[in-house]
Known about the structure:
4 strands, globular, two-stranded antiparallel sheet, 9% strand, mainly alpha
Amino acid sequence: MDHAYLEMCHSCESKVVSHYISQPGAEPPSLSLCDDCVQTHTPAFARDFTEDLSAEGCRFCGGKAAASDSLAHVIDGAGAEEKFLCRSCALEYHRIGLRYFESPLDPDLKADERLREIMAQIDTDMRRWVIQRDN
């Protein structure tokens, strides 16, 4: 592996970055930290999220979680159960989602009904995609 292109931790400057944390409204607005520094230089809510992320599996394939399913909160609201995706499924999930959101919304349906319909379609497409990917 060519280490010339690896980003080093903003805190210790000696280890490779493994966590990218966005802090809107904070200074600095983002942090790039190694595994060791993430525990001591991250706000509590982000540490909790990081712990949840490493303890959970992908909601579609069970693989190692790499991102949260941000669309779940759009449908279920702020109190929605946190759901996670592996890197591979996250990329496909967002590619599929963008395809559905490119089409115009049906004016006869309420927006929340249309969002639920789109999310159900995305889930169906993802389950098919994971089966094809894993075979």
